[in-house]
Known about the structure:
Blueprint: H1 24-42, H2 46-55, H3 58-75, H4 77-80, E1 97-102, E2 106-114, E3 116-122, E4 129-133, E5 139-152, E6 155-164, H5 182-218, H6 220-235, H7 238-246, H8 255-285, H9 289-296, H10 301-338, H11 349-352, H12 359-364, H13 370-393
Amino acid sequence: MExxxxxxxxxxxxxxxxxPDHTAPQYEGEAADQRVSTIATESQSYVSLVWRRFRRSVPxxxxxxxxxxxxxxALFAEFFAxxxxxxxxxxxxxxxKISWHVPGEGWRLLPVAFxxxxxDELDPVTYQPLMAPDFDNPRRIVLFAKGWEYEFLxxxxxxxxxxxxxxxxxxxxxxxxxxxxxxSRGIIGSxxxxxxxxxxxxxxxxIGTLVGIAxxxxxxxxxxxFQRFVxxxxxxxxxxxxxxxxxxxxxxAPSGLFLTFVVLVIVGLGWAQLSxxxxxxxxxxxxxxxxxxxxxxxxxxGRIITRHILPNVMSHVIVAVTLGVPSIVLLESFLGYLGxxxxxPLISWGLMLQDAxxxxxxxxxxxxxxxxxxxxxxxxxxxxxGDGLRDAIDPY
Length: 396
């Protein structure tokens, strides 16, 4: 007599051979996990998807870390600057020698700095005393060392991120023609250079985005004549215009007025390109189905722009901002080198590059070109961040 399956027993409890089917629950569990994974992926927001793609970009993450570091250093510049940027010491002193080995004592856990002093030998060309490390007086480098006093948020501090234990000068990148520490001036100068770049790109973004959306959305004769005005702005040769405008401000003008004028000139010539790009995006979005449906149901122009068009162009605007900051940093450095930027006692990277104006200075004191490294690092950081964001926002 053959065994017949119990009608009260589940259908998948027995296999066709009469044995339990051990694979069915496993397959059902895998299918359930796949469904859960699919639902979780579909429920992710647009920002989460962009962040997930951005994390896979090694240059993008490196740029994000570098940009965050630059902003932190610029915000707490006095803390990270080991020396007073206005205190003169030895002019054109080479960088201090940093080492973990002390002659006659062996290796040390913490690095030491050997100060640069004048030796007994003379330069055969200039007959000036040659500078050399003083290996007889090693100075231990420590973190959170005491140094020059500075004010932050109305309070006075004298602690710095790095310094010498005994409080003596530490010139990691050497000194300039007036004996001021180059590293400290570069760190302090990042505040002015990045402030000009971030302020300019903020105003450029606001003006270019609003004008571009208005021109692309309204269209008609307004768009036709306004684009002719944009073409006139784009046709201006920037370098001669900068040099011409520089002659309008007297040398004795306050630094605040000079900075304001620099920002206005950069913004006045920089918004046109972004507005042209946003206009093309807006014209494409104006023809999509959901925007036309919003127009058909009687939605106001303000609601259509703020709810449908602006969020869709912001991805392009964010990438344009990250790629526009390096251009402004380079422009500020170039204008500072020509003298059309900040004036002493303010400090910027472009102003520091004025010391490297002759080949004789560069040949004799090559460390005077150290401010170029600050500009290169900033440009690389923002370019890497912009490339990573561009690939994450529009992977195709």
